[in-house]
Structure formats: C-alpha cells, structure tokens
Amino acid sequence: MKSSFCCNCSGSLGFGCLVQPRLGSTAFPPTKRKEQTDPDLFSTNRGQLSRGRNPEPRPAEASHHSQALATARARPEAGSLSRIRRLSSSLPATFRTCLSGRRKHTYGDGNHSCSSLYMASGQLSRAEALACSGCRHACHVMLYCDTNTLLFGSIPIRHIVLMQMRFDGLLGFPGGFVNLSEESLEAGLGRELLEELGVAFQILEEDHVDSCFAPASSPASSTSPRLITHFYTKKMEEGQIRAVETAAVTTATDHGQEVLGMVRVPLHSTKGGGGLASFLSHSFVGNARFQLLHTLLRLHLVAPEELREALARSLKIQARASEELRAALARVEGKTNLPHHSPAHTG
Ligand SMILES: O=c1[nH]cnc2c1ncn2[C@@H]1O[C@H](COP(=O)(O)OP(=O)(O)O)[C@@H](O)[C@H]1O
C-alpha cells in the first residue's frame, strides 16, 4: 500500500490521495533564512536561546529575558509574551505547560557525561549540545512555504508545512540520527533527507532552531546514552515543496519502508472543528508535536488564539477517540474470546 496514505484536509488520517510522480531527484541549494520570528515568544517562554552559537548563552539569555519581560510589562497589548500568558491561562494544563516551557521532564540518569548541561526544560544551546560527546544526536527539519491556494475555493491554506508518517505509525519531521564522529549535524541531516525525501539538501547552521534532550518517554531515550534532538526549519518556494513531495514517493530510498508518506499539516480550522485540531490529536514521535507547536507560533504561521482553540478541540477529539477505541477493543475481545483488557495484558 505505497503512497496511498494521506492526511486529508480536515486533518484526519484517511485514504484517497492521488500522487502523481513527475520529477526525478532534485537538489536544493542553501537559502538564507529571513523569517519573521518572534523573539519574545521563543526565548522567554522557553527560557533558552534559539541560535546556539553564543559562547555564553546563559547571561545573554537572562538579559534577553528581562528585556522582553520589561517590554511586555511596559506595553502589555503589544507584547506577545503577555498575549501568550493570557491565552495559555485558559488552556488545558498539559498544553499550558507545553506552551510555557515549564514542564518538568525527567532527563537522563545523571551519569552521562553531559549531566552538568541538564536544564529543567531539557533545552540546550547548540554549543552545549555539541559538547555532549557521550550523547546520541538526531536532527530533524520542518520544511515549509507560503501558498495562496484556497481549500474548496474559499479557505486559505496560507502555508504548506511538511511532516511524515513514519514506519512506527507516528508523525514526525524528516531527519534522523547523526554520527558526530563522522559528520557535522547539518551534513548528517542532509544525508538523512536524501534517504527520506530523495532530494539533496544543504541545511545550514543558520537553519538551526534549537537543541534539547529527548523526553524520557521517547523510545530512543529510554536507554543510555541520552538522545539530543536538534531542530531546524527551512523556508522554501511552493514549487520546491511540491518537488520534495514528488521525489519523496519516487526517488527516496526510504519510501514505503521507514517513511510511509509525507503529510501536509492542515493549519486551517473547518466549521466542524477539523483541520489543525484533528491533526494535533494524532500521535507524534518524541517531542515532534512540541516542535511543531512552537514553530507555528515562532514563525507566526498560526495565531496564538487559533492555536489555543485548536488545542482545546484536539483534547475533545482525543477523548472521543479513546471512547471509540475502548468500544472497538470490547468488540474485538468479544469476537475473539480474548481475555478482557487489563493492565496485566497490555504489558
Ligand atoms: O520529528 C521528530 N522530532 C523529534 N524527535 C524525533 C523526530 N523523529 C524522530 N525523533 C527521535 O529521534 C530518534 C531518531 O530519529 P529517526 O527515527 O528519524 O532516525 P533514523 O531515521 O536515523 O532511524 C527517534 O528514535 C525519535 O526518538
């Protein structure tokens, strides 16, 4: 069942995408990023610096933090920090902590060589992350573009954001493990992208957004050494994004194996509450959902108000899905005479 999977426009997973392979492998040169970012949102709420080349990140971070706070206090309506705080106060607790970056993850066993780099948020500057020789490193990238396309002729799609359905049924960004003894972070990411997307990319250090310890709940981080995930964003032209999607199903060696298909993240919301809300209720690998949420805000691809609404809807969708799954399980157990579901049977 190659390439027949898709994420439909309501954000639900389904079948019926028409894939029309046309192009062969493509190479994309590096692009200098000139994204409109929101430093208040990104730095102060995550308590970290986004571009990790500052040799002394902590003092800079502290000064940036207090500057942004001062701005937000002086001009509360203009400061995105206060806007986010106001919005997040009405969010469900899980997502509130997610957006504020105050969630206390358990990172590492304290024995690895970079335990001194531990931060409550799990965030590291690039320099700190690279200093952790005992850690494993993985790099992933969000490829995106602007678009004028209208869904059903009326709903602006605004931006195309690419993710992928992985072999394990989880959503994630393209990328993978990097071997720092043989390659740089960016070279390793380029190698992974060639395998997964069938396109030769040159990802630059300027494309780096952040680095952090993978949550302890990640399968790959349950064993030592700990995993550090590095996240990148790359803005492209719409035609380039379309070429990536085509190459991903025609020339990429991983297609149908490690990668089951590329998906576009629906950023719109339909009247029935579909779109972004449905998409966010799916299962993501590691901290990919967090990376997506944060990047959507940081790059102003979705307004905080819209995101808050989508997240609240997403929780309701998840609750409904849990009920459906429980009912389905009960039916399957009834038909197959399986013992009834209990924690002892789930392993
Ligand atoms: O999109 C993502 N965001 C954050 N972490 C991810 C993402 N995709 C995978 N990971 C984490 O990074 C690890 C390595 O990534 P991946 O499975 O893509 O590597 P591979 O393609 O080299 O096997 C995964 O086991 C997972 O914990």
Walk me through what this model shows.
The structure is a single chain. With 347 residues, this protein is α+β, with helices and mostly antiparallel strands. The protein has a domain at 94-335: Nucleoside Triphosphate Pyrophosphohydrolase. It is 37% helix and 18% strand. The protein contains eleven helices and 14 strands. The strands form four sheets. Strands 4, 5, 8, 9, 10, 12, 13 and 14 form an eight-stranded mixed beta sheet that branches. The protein has a two-stranded antiparallel ribbon with strand order 1-2. Strand 6 and strand 7 form a beta hairpin. The longest helix is centred in the last third of the chain and has 33 residues, at 304-336. The radius of gyration is 21 Å and the shape is globular. The two termini are 30 Å apart. Mean pLDDT is 73; it is low at 1-9, 14-25 and 34-120. The protein binds inosine-5'-diphosphate. The site of inosine-5'-diphosphate has 20 residues, from strand 5, strand 10, strand 13 and helix 9.
